[in-house]
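ARCHIVE CARD
CATEGORY: sequence design from structure
SOURCE FIELD: tokenized fold
FIELD CONTENT:
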């Protein structure tokens, strides 16, 4: 994708130029702090592993309804693995009308959820690959009508690939030294439907033990761009493309909340009015890929290992052939048990059906309803970015605290897309309510903060603490004031629409304006929520770093690092370019040579696995 649309909004502060202009808009971009357990990014661990037991046999099938990339996660059986690399992203939030729940998405992010090139927003090239494990085609020939069948969609809820953002399919012949052959390609496009492709296996060089195939994409490498979604991949014999149908009824989309507004809220707030926070019913989505079936659906709740099962709650027995199905489930007054004696709780909810078909793995979808210390509207997946651009821009998102509680900070998901604003700063702010729009300022931080990006997973949330905890009750707004004209790309969940009436921005010399962009901007206020000790946010428990001297000539000393934890120290110049990065050894003190840095100001970000510890301006003066 060429990054040509600059979607912006801005507000002038008194110390900024009066003639600045601003407007809101949205940039396309993706994935989960609290994700369907079947798609948690924790499944991808640092050490790659491959399934043992030799080559796969046909039929080869994967609809991505379960995690099938290489992983060392012991909860994922090795026999689920179908692929030898993990650059693609298995998810259930990006596609429109998938065949079954879950797809593999190829984009401009690497396997760590970080852009392939975050220094040049216009750089493009080959990005992700999705490569099958070796498959044994020995003993087959062209007379066996062996076909690879798959389905693709460009964009979905993400960003449309343009004409040179192509999707490719290659076959691998293990003959001799082995060689890859490109057998199919497609220029970028936007679609709300999946297209089926049937590719015959032809040529004796492929009918050997060790055959592979792979998908790969050409994309803009600076972020979450140019989305291709792959679904329902089948390699088998005796396939007649002219007379080929599926016998499968599958879940199609996830359920992401049973609450009437939020996807998560503090447990101590929920238990004050359980019935008032629960939705009356919920929709679940199925897709019948074949003839009419007797579909009996039910659901279950699990807490602390104990499950309540509600089977056969919905019967659909006629006229459901070859169609997407929306059904409504009724709880009959069910509430999450308010008697759980704790300050947090997590409930697992599953909805399932019982038709007899070939692929039972796609007949169930589950999610976890998490009650801890924050409110959330989003499902943890950023399909696009809400872009803030303009010096002095103000952004405010409305929440309703059920009880009087102490506000400690906010979580924010910054989506990497194009420009990297890590060296740019903003100021946290909280507003009261004034007739349905942000009113009086309740608190503003003196300390500035910076957008933060991570190399250890998709959709990671950053935590920002207020200088002083703030008691709030009822309606309040959280957000920030931007200090410069950089693009601040905040995740926007496109599977929900709560922005309307809740998300506001302010222009120069004007009133607050309600956002017109649908979605759920990924900002989450964090409360004390009944805790009697330290607030359960890792970043709050870290010691403030001591960094000296500043200005520095040749050697910078950093003290109070977390003991036993490696910390990455990143130096950014004033343009936002990463110019130096070093990893500490796990001790509480580190000394970093700065004689390779030019004179000037830099932003130092100390980043641990648990989050950003410190962001500080450093002046180098040789």
């Amino acid at each position: 994708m060429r990054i040509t649309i600059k979607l912006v909004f801005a507000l002038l502060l008194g110390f900024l130029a009066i003639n600045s202009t601003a407007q809101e808009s949205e940039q396309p971009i993706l994935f989960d702090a609290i994700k369907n357990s079947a798609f948690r990014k924790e499944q991808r661990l640092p050490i790659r592993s491959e399934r043992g037991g030799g080559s796969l046999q046909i039929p080869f099938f994967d609809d991505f309804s379960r995690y099938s990339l290489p992983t060392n996660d012991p909860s994922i059986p090795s026999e689920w693995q179908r692929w030898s690399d993990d650059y693609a992203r298995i998810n259930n939030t990006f596609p429109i009308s998938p065949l079954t729940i879950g797809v593999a998405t190829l984009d401009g992010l690497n396997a760590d959820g970080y852009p392939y090139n975050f220094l040049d927003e216009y750089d493009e090239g080959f990005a992700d690959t999705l490569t099958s494990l070796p498959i044994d085609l020995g003993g087959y020939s062209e007379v066996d009508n062996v076909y690879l069948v798959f389905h693709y969609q460009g964009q979905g809820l993400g960003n449309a690939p343009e004409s040179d953002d192509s999707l490719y399919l290659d076959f691998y012949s293990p003959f001799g030294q082995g060689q890859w052959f490109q057998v199919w390609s497609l220029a970028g496009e936007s679609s709300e439907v999946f297209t089926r492709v049937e590719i015959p296996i032809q040529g004796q060089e492929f009918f050997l033990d060790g055959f592979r195939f792979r998908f790969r994409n050409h994309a803009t490498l600076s972020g979450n761009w140019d989305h291709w979604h792959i679904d329902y991949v089948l390699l088998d014999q005796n396939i007649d493309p002219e007379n080929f149908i599926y016998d499968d009824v599958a879940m199609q989309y996830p359920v992401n909340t049973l609450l009437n507004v939020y996807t998560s809220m503090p447990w101590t707030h929920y238990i004050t009015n359980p019935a008032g926070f629960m939705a009356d019913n919920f929709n679940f989505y199925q897709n019948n890929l074949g003839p009419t079936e007797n579909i009996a659906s039910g659901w279950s709740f699990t807490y602390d290992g104990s499950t309540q099962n509600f089977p056969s709650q919905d019967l659909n027995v006629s006229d459901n052939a070859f169609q997407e199905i929306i059904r409504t489930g009724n709880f009959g007054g069910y509430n999450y048990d308010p008697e759980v004696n704790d300050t947090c709780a997590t409930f697992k909810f599953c909805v399932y059906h019982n038709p007899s078909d070939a692929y039972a793995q796609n007949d169930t979808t589950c999610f976890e309803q998490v009650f801890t210390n924050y409110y959330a509207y989003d499902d943890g997946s950023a399909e696009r970015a809400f872009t803030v651009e303009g010096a002095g821009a103000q952004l405010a998102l409305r929440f309703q605290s059920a009880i009087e509680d102490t506000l400690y900070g906010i979580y924010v998901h910054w989506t990497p897309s194009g420009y990297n604003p890590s060296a740019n700063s903003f100021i946290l702010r909280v507003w009261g309510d004034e007739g349905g729009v942000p009113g009086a300022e309740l608190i503003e931080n003196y300390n500035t903060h910076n957008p933060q990006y991570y190399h250890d997973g998709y959709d990671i949330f950053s935590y920002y603490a207020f200088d002083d905890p703030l008691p709030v009750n009822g309606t309040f707004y959280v957000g920030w004031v931007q200090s410069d004209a950089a693009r601040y790309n905040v995740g926007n969940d496109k599977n929900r629409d709560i922005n309307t009436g809740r998300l506001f921005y302010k222009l120069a010399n004007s009133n607050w304006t309600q956002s017109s962009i649908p979605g759920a901007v990924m900002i989450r206020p964090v409360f004390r929520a009944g805790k009697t000790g330290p607030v359960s946010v890792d970043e709050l428990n870290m010691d403030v770093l001591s960094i000296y001297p500043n200005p520095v000539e040749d050697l910078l000393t950093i003290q109070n690092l977390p003991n036993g934890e490696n910390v990455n120290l990143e130096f950014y110049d004033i343009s936002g370019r990463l110019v130096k990065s070093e990893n500490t050894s796990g001790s509480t003190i580190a000394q970093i040579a700065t004689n390779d840095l030019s004179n000037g100001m830099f932003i130092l970000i100390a980043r641990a696995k648990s989050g950003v510890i410190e962001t500080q301006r450093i002046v180098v003066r040789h």
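CARD ANNOTATION: Residues 1-22, 28-50, 534-543 have pLDDT under 50 and may be disordered. The radius of gyration is 26 Å.
SHELF: design records, drawer C
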